[in-house]
Specification:
The chain has 291 residues and is α+β, with helices and mostly antiparallel strands. It contains seven helices and ten strands. A hairpin with a 3-residue loop joins strand 3 and strand 4. It is elongated, with a radius of gyration of 20 Å.
Length: 291
Amino acid sequence: MPELPEVETVKRGLDKLIVGRAVVSASSDNAKSFPNSLADVKAFLVGASVTSVRRRAKVLMIDLSSGYTLVVHLKMTGQLVFVEDFSRFGAGHPSDSLIGNLPDKSTRVTIEFSDGSHLYFNDQRKFGWVRLMPTVEVPNIDFMKRVGPEPLEADFTAAQFADRFKRRARTTIKAALLDQSVIAGVGNIYADESLWGAKIHPSRLVGSITSAEFKKLYTEVRAVMNLSIDKGGSTNRNYVNAEGKRGSYMDFARVFRREGLECPRCGTEIIKIRVAGRGTHICPVCQIAGN
């Protein structure tokens, strides 16, 4: 599943590519992927222009001049790819992209703009969706009301970060990091990377984490996510950016999917265990359980 850095990368790409473009048509092959009435599409999407692209946690919001918003959740395999004049913006010929000519068999939603360009929502597993709704109602979505603060916001402090975990004292630190109601947008990749960076074993209970360790974990979460954004996101199997390309963060990963390789800090072999129901990568020397 794309995590916060991947969704942020898509958001930044779309913000440069589609703002100001006017929608002339929208079609879908799957009602679950595009759960909108034809009347609403005609009244509030077709003829409207894109005014901004936003992100909250792992959810994208494409605001329209009609006062409506396309709320997009990529879920596990969703992709948003912009195509202009049959080639991806800045990518030259379509063969430069990791995906072929669009639409293809995984395309669930196609939005056409007045200049002939298109925005495609691809989703092999059909878990993602593109929902059209009044912009003023977006904050009232259950997810939006439950989700925790954004870890990369400039005014989000280390003290606030630690405070978010207080009610999870008997939960493992990895499970708490993955809980979107605690902190927004931290998924499996960046939880493993951050915990390794802070030298914290993922199975430790939140109540055992010291103030100093929380401060280090806060720094690591922000550092690995910002690095991933700088590198265009991870090379996750399904993730591509708004131009159909993958990012290069995994070239810089210290522990995730590095089982059998040496820990870049101490040289011990990285192992893979299971914590919080997820495959988890650790250094058994740098991250000692029970510390």
